[in-house]
Write a structure and sequence with these properties.
Number of strands: 67
Largest sheet: 5 strands, antiparallel
Distance between the termini: 99 Å
CATH topology of one domain: Methylamine Dehydrogenase, Chain H
CATH class of one domain: Mainly Beta
Shape: elongated
Low-confidence stretches: 1-18, 69-89
Strand order of the largest sheet: 33-41-42-43-44
Strand content: 35-45%
Helix content: 10-25%
Radius of gyration: 35 Å
CATH architecture of one domain: 7 Propeller
């Protein structure tokens, strides 16, 4: 039967009931009309009033329900008393740092948060832009606000909101109207919408912009000030501070004409300097007030009515954190552009020019100066539960999870507190911190203004890895896809990977070093020597290398040059195993290696032969590249390439896997001096006439500085800076442009510089060891030493060096103790019996076995005293 046949059969069946219903329609309509007219009679109103008056309880309940429906009371009040953390969904980033706990990552499925186990660079984007904002990662996309083209004639510059692929860094779209200014506010994403403020501090007519996720503008709201606050999207509304224009609550969707719908706007006279990024939890908006406001505020999210306000001794610029019914608020004097001390000095000078007396100036400035704090408040009532003082302000938010709080202080330390306000530890990054910490399951991440990112064990704050970013960092890192996304003054960096542990890398041969994180033993004794009695004598001719569990030694047996692979741990007979031996034509440059590959330059100075890549397993050659006989030959490597001085002023990069030429570059520095230094795709080289930085993947010159005096050795990269010895002084310079941070006269130093734990050491030819502060270059301590070609060893805050024909060790002071540091007495570190043992190579090894070549021949291993 077809559908038509069925329909023809059904229609006659339905016609009967339909005819009856049509006949009744006039009667039904007349009944409803009569009922409506009855309600319009005065007697009906009187009857209803009498009924409600006699049923007073029913009437009261009815009125109460209506009031609650209209105002939302008491549900909003009840929920605010148990304020709980709100986290973003996998495709959302609805507020600053992703959620109310300010963890710096979007919520993922339980146990699915991948963390980078190594700080390897992944990609860099937006090289020509400055990023003051913090990246937001929603799904597979990264959103950032940018600034560029700033000048004294255009302080606000130009800006854009940019969307990139989180995996590749490819730009997907850019929202950049011609009048859009440089932006500090960070994008937030929820419900298919992106919201971001506009402007830097100089902007007086910024806007709040809402886009869809294809970059199309949906609406914008003009303000009477800059909008550096980052919005919070909650319940279909946008909450955001507008600095000197108060605080706004705007509907996420525009009206029928595409205009923004403002639900309420807090008066800037009552809420001055709304710079803080808000958080909305259970119907309450929490935010801070900066200069002139000095308070923490809580207002009703629906009406904007103030629930409570707590005055603070300092401005509150940072975003508050909400977790488990508590509000954590950082504060302090000082801002992004000026330290508290600079602000204090400027205010004193201003008052002095105004003719104020010393007493008047002291009274007017007594609340200023370096100071900061973290406060904990009850989220419902605003009652202060505890306070934790800090030496300077906290500009980023506090990350909270697992009963711990993490906060970065402007003075350079990352602090860890319990949620009860008890200090649990701190870590010194040796650079001002503007950023918020990012907290994963096992690690905490922080970046400092000096341009370095750090990964620490979240429980112990022990360092896992750190990576220089090559530029200043003002915003906060975001964690997603096992990467860390960090905005810098020269673009967006993606670093870190969770691939299986990287193969071991050794490229610091001329400086030596200890592999592993165990502390250096305070006392050691001799463990073994190579060769043992009865074997041919052997003398090391180059620094030793520790790679994995083995030791690689270049030297000679009575005129025959060879490369040996030894076990770094003695066997049961206290004799090191020789895994293999390869005959070469002489080696005097440090070895380098990565995983199963060993790099060695064959041939002595003046008679270079080749750069050889050998198998660590059996010593077989994997590839080789010939060198000019007079080539300096110094080289270094990273995990992709090896960089070699192939002639006096020429540097060549080879692919590490196959030895193919990646790029050649004339350094234009005169003759290359020492070993190049590489970190995070930046290559630093020094020559007889200058210093240069090169982009390691491409060989592109980044900057070049001429010198009037030649350097005395290799550069040493330390975070976002590098150390170099020039004439009679040591200088710390910036990697970003080569400018000098500090310089200190130390005398003639011929050995490579070493730095660790906030200190730099140098032994002069005159026999003086100087311990310098890495922060400012001042001399922390001076000791007598035995001059030599190789540097002292620093590991885990212990310094080992030669002093008056003996081995000596000292414990280093804390980096910030300065001139008031308590100096520990030196102790004899290695006592020898049957003759003194002087090093002919730098000390290398692990804390369990430290190895060096002796000046009288042979290899010596010392171990902790049993």
């Amino acid at each position: 039967m077809t559908a038509v046949d069925w329909l023809l059969g059904v229609i006659p069946v339905l016609m009967g009931p339909l005819q009856v219903l049509l006949a009744l329609v006039p009667a039904i309509a007349a009944a409803f009309l009569g009922l409506a007219l009855a309600f319009l009679r005065p007697s009906a109103y009187k009857a209803a009033a009498r009924f409600l008056w006699h049923q007073k309880l029913f009437t009261a309940c009815l009125i109460g329900v209506a009031v609650c429906w209209y105002t939302g009371f008491p549900l909003s009040l009840i929920s605010s008393r148990a304020a709980r953390a709100v986290d973003a969904g996998p495709g959302d980033w609805p507020m600053y740092r992703g959620g109310s706990s300010r963890l710096g990552h979007a919520a993922v499925q339980a146990g699915d948060l991948r963390e980078p186990g190594a700080g390897s660079p992944v990609w860099t984007a937006l090289h020509d832009m400055t990023i003051y904002s913090s990246p937001a990662v929603a799904g597979d996309r990264v959103y950032v606000a940018t600034a560029w083209d700033m000048s004294p004639f255009n302080l606000s510059g130009k800006g854009a909101i940019v969307c990139l692929d989180a995996h590749t860094g490819q730009e997907l779209w850019r929202y950049a109207p011609s009048d859009f200014r440089g932006t500090f506010s960070s994008p937030v994403v929820k419900d298919g919408r992106l919201v971001c403020g506009e402007g830097l501090h100089q902007t007086t007519d910024a806007r709040i912009t809402c886009l869809d996720l294809s970059g199309r503008k949906l609406w914008e709201l003009r303000t009477k000030s800059h909008v550096e606050s980052t919005a919070c999207i909650e319940g279909g509304r946008v909450y955001i501070g507008a600095a000197a224009d108060g605080f706004y609550c705007v509907d996420l969707e525009p009206d029928a004409d595409g205009k923004p719908v403002v639900h309420w706007h807090l008066d800037p006279a009552e809420y001055p300097d709304c710079e803080s990024s808000p958080v909305v939890v259970d119907g309450t908006v929490y935010f801070g007030l900066g200069l002139g406001g000095n308070a923490i505020c809580a207002v009703d999210a629906i009406s904007g009515q103030e629930r409570w306000r707590v005055p603070t001794p300092y401005p509150v610029f940072a975003a508050p954190t909400v977790a488990e019914g508590r509000l954590y608020v950082p504060m302090g004097n000082g801002n992004y552009a000026q330290t508290a001390q600079e602000l204090l000095d400027a205010r004193r000078e201003e008052l002095s020019r105004a003719g104020k007396s010393a007493e008047e100036i002291a009274e007017a400035t007594k609340g200023l100066g370096p100071a900061g704090a973290i406060w904990c408040l009850d989220a419902a009532s605003g009652e202060v539960q505890w306070k934790f003082p800090l030496p300077e302000t906290v500009l980023g938010s506090i990350a909270c999870e697992g009963g711990r709080l993490y906060a970065g202080c402007r003075e350079g330390r990352l602090y860890c507190l319990s949620t009860d306000g008890k200090p649990l530890g701190h870590y010194d990054t040796r650079g001002p911190i503007f950023a918020s910490p990012t907290l994963g399951r096992r690690h905490v991440y922080i970046a400092n203004k000096s341009g370095a990112a750090f990964c620490l064990n979240a429980a112990s704050l022990e360092p896992i890895w750190d990576v220089p970013l090559g530029s200043e960092v003002w915003g906060s890192p975001a964690l997603a896809h096992a990467h860390l996304y960090v905005g810098t003054k020269t673009g967006l960096r993606c670093v870190g990977t969770d691939v299986p542990p990287s193969p071991p890398l050794w490229h610091t041969g001329e400086r030596g070093g200890i592999v592993g994180g165990e502390p250096l033993p305070r006392e050691v004794e001799e463990a073994w020597r190579y060769p043992v009695e009865g074997q041919p004598p052997f003398r090391a001719t180059a620094p030793l290398m520790v790679l994995g569990e083995h030791l690689y030694v270049a030297g000679e047996f009575s005129g025959r040059a060879a490369l040996l692979k030894l076990a770094s741990v003695p066997d049961s007979d206290d004799r090191p195993n020789v895994a293999w031996e390869k005959t070469l034509e002489g080696v005097d440059l440090p070895l380098a290696g990565l995983g199963e590959r060993i790099l060695v330059v064959e041939g002595l100075a003046g008679n270079r032969l080749a750069l050889r890549c050998l198998s660590a397993k059996d010593g077989e050659e994997l590839w080789s590249k010939p060198l000019d006989r007079d080539a300096p030959g110094q080289f270094t490597l990273d995990r992709q390439r090896v960089y070699v001085a192939t002639s006096g002023d020429r540097l060549t990069a080879f692919d590490l896997a196959a030895g193919e030429v990646q790029w050649p570059r004339q350094a234009q520095l005169g003759g290359i001096i020492g070993t190049p230094a590489v970190a995070a795709d930046l290559l630093c080289i020094v020559g007889t006439s200058g210093i240069a930085a090169i982009d390691a993947p491409t060989g592109t010159p980044l900057w070049n500085i001429n010198l009037t005096q030649p350097p005395r050795g290799s550069p040493l990269i330390v975070g976002s800076s590098f150390l170099v010895s020039i004439a009679d002084r040591i200088e710390l310079r910036r990697l970003t442009d080569g400018s000098v941070i500090w310089k200190t006269v130390v005398g003639d130093v011929d050995h490579p510089l070493v730095a660790s734990g906030g200190h730099v050491t140098a032994c002069s030819r005159s026999g003086q060891l100087m311990l310098l502060s890495l922060n400012d270059g001042h001399v922390v301590r001076m000791l007598s030493c035995e001059a030599g070609r190789w540097p002292p060893l620093i590991h885990q805050n212990v310094l080992v060096f030669r002093q008056s024909e003996r081995w000596t060790a000292i414990e280093l002071p804390a980096p910030r103790d300065g001139a008031q540091a308590k100096h520990e007495a030196p102790w004899e570190w290695f006592m020898t019996f049957g003759g003194d043992i002087r090093p002919a190579t730098p000390l290398v090894g692990t804390a369990g076995g430290i190895i060096f070549g002796a000046d009288r021949g042979g290899i010596v291993c010392v171990r902790p005293t049993r």
